[in-house]
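hey
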């Protein structure tokens, strides 16, 4: 019984067909994963550009309360901070691996 099962070739997939089908599937997966990687890199590039373009400058004015006669009960001084552009704040220095038309025209 085991010998007849071993020698039965009905419904057998030939190894050449199996190699061809698996090669096509692997190549399709590689192309799909490369496109997925390009879209993820493009979205992360957009996100990093958005973070880089945030202006973190602020300014608060001081205030004071006077008793009269040029005397103050309380006074606070204002504060200011100016966010200067860093080298990584612009989109020109982001090197994208993908050569997609939408990425090249940015």
């Amino acid at each position: 019984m085991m010998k007849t099962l071993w020698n039965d070739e009905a419904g057998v997939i030939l190894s050449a067909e199996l190699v061809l089908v698996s090669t096509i599937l692997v190549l399709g997966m590689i192309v799909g994963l490369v496109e997925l990687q390009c879209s993820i890199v493009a979205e992360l590039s957009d996100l990093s550009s958005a973070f880089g373009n945030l202006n973190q400058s602020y300014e608060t004015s001081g205030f004071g309360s006077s008793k009269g006669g040029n005397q103050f009960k309380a006074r606070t001084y204002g504060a200011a901070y100016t966010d200067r552009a860093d080298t990584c704040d612009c989109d020109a220095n982001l090197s994208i691996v993908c050569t997609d038309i939408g990425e090249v025209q940015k």
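The radius of gyration is 33 Å. The chain has a mean pLDDT of 79.
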